[in-house]
Amino acid sequence: MKIVVRVLGPIEVTDAEGRPLPVGSRRRRELLGRLVAAGGRAVPLAVLADDLWADPPSTAAGTIRTFVAEVRRALEPERPPRGRSSVIETVGSGYALRVPRTDIDAHRFEDTLRTVADVPDGKVVDVLGEALSWWRGEPYGDLDSSPWLTSERARLAELHSQAVELRARAVLDLGRGAPLVPELEAFTAAHPWREPAWGLLSHALYQAGRQVDALAVLRDARARLLEQFGLTSADGLDHLERDILRQAPHLTPAPRDEDRWRLLTRTEATGTYTRLRTMSTVAGAAAITGGTNLVLAQEQRAAAVAEAERTGDAALTARVIAAYDVPTVWTRADDPVRAEALVTTTRRTLRRLGPQAPAALRARLLATIGLEHRGSRDRWAAEAATEAERLARELHDPGLLVLALNARFVQSFQRPGRTAERDAIGGELIDLATRHDLPLFEILGRLIRMQVCAARGDAETAHHHVVTVERLADRHETPLVHVLTAGFRTMLLAARSSDPAEVAHAYRGLAADLAGAGMPGVEAGLFPLALLSVRIRHRRPAPTDPGLDWGPYRPWVQPLLDLARGDRTAAHRAAAALPAPPADHLYDSLWAVNAHTATLLGDDSLAARSRVALSPLRGEIAGGVTAMVTFGPVDDILRLG
After folding, report:
1. Average pLDDT in the 173-179 region?
2. Band of the pLDDT at 270, cuts 50, 70, 90?
């Protein structure tokens, strides 16, 4: 016979149809509760006696056997006399409850909580929401307090608190925190010493648009912790306060559901041309907000272009491609496969259009090739950017020219030592954008100038561009900018701080921002590479934490990882197989890593190649062009080599 036992509230037992089964007196319910708390393990008779009585009487053993017999009859009314019990089994001198964990609410709750770690946020909210609904009050609420019960109630209360916090975190990660505020206010009042709870309440208030209240909660929590425990700082609260003050993008993620996808794809147009071109235009508008919107926008653009090409109309395909004119300041594509598919389609469309295509349309397609086929040394991509710029200047079209200049910027990384060229491009973008009201390209120009100044070690001028571009980003609602400027500030700290732990801590905060920004081309591998830059500059071995994902940079780091593990032979083997660093923002960083490897291994050939690669960058900061990581002055690296 199936029975269901509930202890998350007063003890209740029902049969499979939900009919209550009367267990009996408080003592009998306490016996059942004690067996539930054992989690299926046998409880010796002597332990039961000590737990049921503060001072067990001499008749305790006999009384417990009587209780067990009576509870068995209550739970198994159809069991024949002297038949073996399938619910309470005799094990040696003790007893064990043999009810499946799924049929005991406390056990099911504990197991559910244990299994949600790898569940998507949306599912976590639903699963834990249901699990929390199983609670009907204080566990074993109809029993008097006793030592075993006090301990078990405390254990279950901690699991309940963990579930509340996990569910709240999942709701916040979905960007839906505003309705949580009343619930979390009550929770923090009931659990004033749980630091995570204060952080969750503050985050929910922030998502509800109550930034001042969010900061006040953090300061109140800090004051309470100081008064009660003498804690002057709590890392989690400090980080959250910093993020709220700078309105970090990851604090307000866009909703991740099908409704947003429908919003991005919906248009009122019925014609194929207008519908597809609008899809691409809307994707461009959504992309600048970053996060999940950026990912969806890229998917939508790809879908619109693919559908346009399937019509067989080259002019339609060209205009759908050209409708997306989002600036880019990074040379590693977020989705290389999708980018190359777009480049292939664009080149094919140009050939089909032929030389009679309108010059402006042709220039936009050429600029698209230059923008999307970045991080390579393919001459044809650089030539496409150059031709786009020539056509734009001939047409005196500022909107087209800023797009072409963006393409030339990303193609400038094909050869090292072109910092001055990028500086000029940034300056012209700022000038064109301010004269012709093209704010997104003024932002691009400022970010390029920030990178140039960081590469030159000119922190003061870089900071001027940072302040200006952050003001523009707030005005034009482009939150990704704040992630990039936070990267510059972290790099500046890395260059100036003598405390590697402080810098590593700051890079972890930056990694959290990047994780929600929707820019895998920037994010992938950057955090461990930044940690490596800190360790190299402080003469420490490479970090070997297996949890670090080196992403695309592992080949260049592998020799140092082998050395950190004491395997010099493997390090030499990995160094001999090193590929050439790609032509992108991390070119000089990876050559700085190679130079360090050459020094540690005494590899003259690798040292010579590193000198040749880095020589065009004399006077600059290795890694500085990223405005995120620094391996120190190139001149210092060349002297060591």
Report:
1. 88
2. very low
Q: pLDDT of 573-610, one tens digit each?
A: 999 999 999 999 999 999 999 999 999 999 999 999 99
**Which has more pLDDT, 317 or 280?**
317
Please, what's the largest Cα pairwise distance for the chain?
107
Q: Alpha-carbon distance 498 to 280, whole Å?
A: 48
Contacts of residue 385, defined as CB under 8 A and 6 or more positions apart, other chains included, come to: 366, 367, 369, 370, 371, 404, 407, 408, 410, 411
DSSP letter for 581, please.
P
Q: Render pLDDT for 17-32 as a digit per residue (tens, 0 to 9).
A: 888 998 888 999 999 9
Main-chain phi, psi angles of 253, to 5 degrees: -65, 150
Bridging pattern class, strands 94-97 and 3-6: unpaired
Report whether pLDDT(481) > 80.
Answer: yes
Verdict on whether the full-model pTM lies above 0.70: no
> Across the strands, what pairs with 96?
89
Q: What is the mean pLDDT of residues 58-74?
A: 93
CB 402 within 8 A of CB 421: no
User: Does residue 631 have a pLDDT over 90?
Assistant: yes
φ, ψ at 421 (rounded to 5°):
-65, -40
Residue type, 6: R
Q: Taking CA 24 as the corner, what is the angle to CA 22 and CA 25, rounded to the nearest 5 degrees?
A: 150
* Token pair belonging to 20: 């209550």
Q: Where are the domains of the chain?
A: 1-174, 177-245, 507-640
Q: Which of the following CATH numbers is that of domain 177-245: 3.90.930.12, 3.40.50.300, 3.30.420.100, 1.25.40.10?
A: 1.25.40.10
| Interatomic CA distance for residues 330 and 409, integer angstroms | 10
The predicted-structure confidence for 347-378, as pLDDT tens digits, reads as follows: 999 999 998 999 999 999 999 999 999 999 99
Rounded to whole angstroms, the Cα distance separating 97 from 41 reads: 8
Quote the CA–CA distance of 134 and 39 in Å, as a whole number: 18
Tokens of 156: 């279950």
Architecture of domain 1-174 in this structure? Orthogonal Bundle (1.10)
Q: Which two tokens stand for residue 426?
A: 């940034």
Q: pLDDT value at position 17?
A: 80
CB 64 within 8 A of CB 52: yes
CA atoms within 13 A on the CB side of 190: 11
Looking at residue 278, its pLDDT comes to 63
411-465 tens-digit pLDDT? 999 999 999 999 999 999 999 999 999 999 999 999 999 999 999 999 999 999 9
Residue type, 598: A
Strand, helix or coil for residue 303: helix
Q: Report the C-alpha dihedral over residues 162, 163, 165, 167, rounded to 10 degrees.
A: 160
CB 490 within 8 A of CB 510: yes
The three-state secondary structure class of 477 is: coil
**Residue linked to tokens 């990660």:** 173
pLDDT cut 70: percent of the chain above it? 91
3-class DSSP string for 547-572: CCCCHHHHHHHHHHHHHHCCCHHHHH
What sign results for the dihedral spanned by CA atoms 547, 550, 551, 557? negative
544 close to 554: Cβ distance less than 8 angstroms? no
Strands 88-91 and 12-15: unpaired
Token representation of residue 396: 């005196």
